[in-house]
Amino acid sequence: MATENSSSDSPFWNKFYIPSYFLLPDSKVQTMAHIPVCPVLVFVNSKSGGQLGVSLLVTYRAHLNKHQVFDLGQESPDKVLSRIYMNLEKLKLEGNDPAARIQETLKIIVAGGDGTAGWLLGVVSDLKLPHPPAIATVPLGTGNNLPFAFGWGKKNPGTDHQSVEAFLKQVMKAEEMKIDSWHILMRMRAPRDGSFDPIAPLELPHSLHAFGRVSSSDELNMDGCHTFRGGFWNYFSMGMDAQISYAFHSERNLRPEKFKNQLVNQSTYMKLVGTQGGFSPSLFQSNSKNIAQLAKVKIVNREGQWQDLHIPHSIRSVICLNLPSFSGGLNPWGTPRRRKGDFTQPCVDDGLIEVVGFRDAWHGLLLLAPSGHGTRLAQAKRIRFEFHKGATDHTYMRIDGEPWKQPLPTDDDTVVVEISHLRQVKVLATHDCKSRSIRHLPTTGNHDTQEDDGAEEEESPPEGEEWRKFGAADTFKIPDEVDMALFS
Fold this sequence. Notes:
The chain has helices at residues 11-14, 20-23, 52-63, 77-93, 97-105, 114-127, 145-149, 161-173, 240-254, 262-275, 281-284, 291-294, 361-364; strands spanning 40-44, 69-71, 107-112, 134-139, 175-189, 225-232, 235-239, 295-300, 306-308, 317-321, 353-358, 375-380, 382-387, 394-399, 402-407, 415-429. It is an alpha+beta fold and 488 residues long. Helix 9 packs across helix 10 (262-275).
């Protein structure tokens, strides 16, 4: 068994083992008998996957240095990475060549749900580390869209010695791929009555953990409004699918003891599709909640021009998609056949987000077919939703699996949600990777050809104001008081 200062007792585990003096400031520098060829830092959400997270911690700590394996419920990754990288930089300045080699080859393993994986991606993005590490994701959640998109599977893994060793072998063979992140801005009028932090009755999801007020000196600040911001990696959605997800999360928060198993969670989710009106819009949901009647939508097209986006009146759910994995591995965009003027097969690093619409759950079932897809609406560099007073006072929104109930204007005010490209980080992709890259890194999966049936984009109206991104230093930061079980 490994100790905190010595190497592992196995030649295989020695390939990943990092001695303590690289990890802990002010540790005594040791003479190294070897340098790990694939040094890793392991972050585990111990509350994910029932007891699987705890079991993974035990297995990794039994074979690696306990100071390179972290329980996210005990220590946040931004603090860990800042401390370790500062120590590595210090050692490099002292002429320590092994420290430089470890920094250049370091990889991160994160085990948890999509929320946990997105958190680690965001932290690495925000910290802007020298030689930022690529990230491998262990699927411990319910949907596991992020791991599935890059070939790590969607079923909860084994936690025994053999299973973890097999995973580490994949990490060694995996190739790096860049992935876009997306910035989301939301502006709404300050309430006349009630609480202001957050705006009542807004229930901020934990995936928007860094949403905060813009300072009065910020050019994007508007008098009488609150402006919030955050980031996401996989998708933003609104409408029917977010409503079902909100019902699921509400039920889980009320009865957490019933949501300890991935299969049970998925079964409960499918039941809610029916009870929330996913199959019967005429009985459960009025036409006033169709997307076209809720919001005016604009996009920035490939040429950089703002234009109105036509949303068919039958569409009850819109998804802005970055990865080819949604609701447990489904691909709403599909793989269109490329022809001049048509939509193209999406890439996770092309700076474009795919906008897809669905009428109801029956429409969504098309995704189970080999060539199934939703109604393709646009591929855009930016997208803006403007909500004005209408027949309903709320809608539902969701970011990377985290839903919330969004109040809409009841007077002449406007709620604005705007999404734009932020930056990129590196992930590790296996040979089963479902995602495509413009840099021609590993691309496999279902690349069947399909005919285009998406709505055509309208001609460009006058160009909007120049966009200025936030300095998103804390875009993905999670408060210390957040219960990590919510990310499982």
